[in-house]
Amino acid sequence: MTPADDRPTGLIARTVELFSTSTLSILFILFAMAMGVTAVLVTPREEEPQIVVPLADVYVQAPGASAEEVEKLVATPLERLLWQIDGVEYVYSISRRDMAIVTVRFYVGEDRERSLVKLYNMISMNMDKAPPLVKGWLVKPVEIDDVPIVNLTLYSSRYNDHELRRIGEEVLARLAEVPDISRTFIVGGRKREVRVELMPSRMAGLGVSLLEVWRALKGTDAAVTAGTFNRDNRSTSVTSDSFVGSARETADLVVSTHEGRPVYLRDIARIMDTPEEPAAYTRLGFSNAHARTEKIENPPGGLSAVTLALAKKRGTNAVDVAQAILNRLDTLKKTVIPDGVEVAVTRNYGQTAQDKVNDLLASLVFAILTVVGLLAFPFEFFFGPLRQLCLRVYHQPGHPLCAHSLPRAGGG
Fold first, then answer.
1. Could you give the count of Cα atoms lying within 13 Å of 271 in the half-sphere of its Cβ?
2. 220: phi > 0 → left, psi -120 to 50 → alpha, else beta; which?
3. In whole angstroms, what is the distance from residue 61 CA to residue 69 CA?
4. 131: which of 142, 162, 396, 401 is 20 to 30 A away, CA to CA?
5. 23-32, pLDDT tens digit by residue?
């Protein structure tokens, strides 16, 4: 019999022989390691799971209707209608005065664009069935990437919430320039407004009605393109640019006439450029121990605060985007953010995603080293001496015990 006749003939045996007698196994190991390192470096690191769950909120406007009327005439019929769409898993709604919000959620894995097209088509085809009180509707898709990855809270003991919001708007406009930023918004703080407080006694004395004031404000704060006319080989556009830009311009509005003289808005009202009326308060507080350690002022009611929320684009690395935001924030602290305004990072999904990935990689490395250790050293190398020692301890004391107990059993 020749050595060639001793070679294995089965598929599995030949495969084992090929990898055990050649360098292919080493090449495959190196290739697998290179692919693994590449995957770790290239794969975006996310905090939220990147699953496809088409979701949308349908806002229906019904001015003047009570919450009960909205539920019976708008929300419930719309729920039944949206249940007819293929692929819908859940439909639920919120009814309140003047509007309803209906949320539609499709099954996991449904194509997002096709699902939204189905939703739009279903609503558009049945607009003739809407009750007269419905004045409009809006579909707002919701994605997992709409969740902010970084929240920055601006707080101060020197500035109020209105001033903090104006500072936050400027900071947010600069942070929105960071690459791979998508949705941004501000939470908290009062917006700026021009407030008109009418004085009924002066309105009665000058014969001005509330309807006249409303018409003057509505008609003045508008811009209209009236058209064009051609003359001398030139085309001229006729426009009316009358947007109100300040409280002074608002005060100079003519609302009516009295005894042949114009009645200005300032004659019957107080006009103020001021923050809006507070509807909610946003405060930031610290524990006493943290305030003492960091030497932070911590009044009992907390500090005025506004929060800047920033989300990233789909498929981008949350770690890199979050770090870019924080780097840009460090630059803005020197130029835009004034003294007396502090910034706290109240959410950083980039950091949490990095920590989770590091824990996962550490667990993988430990598992790999454990498997390599078990394969590299024989089992007997570790447990052989221990097994022999246990047998000796068990058997050697057994002989005297047996020799000592046999005579006792025989009555000796």
1. 16
2. alpha
3. 12
4. 142
5. 777 788 788 8
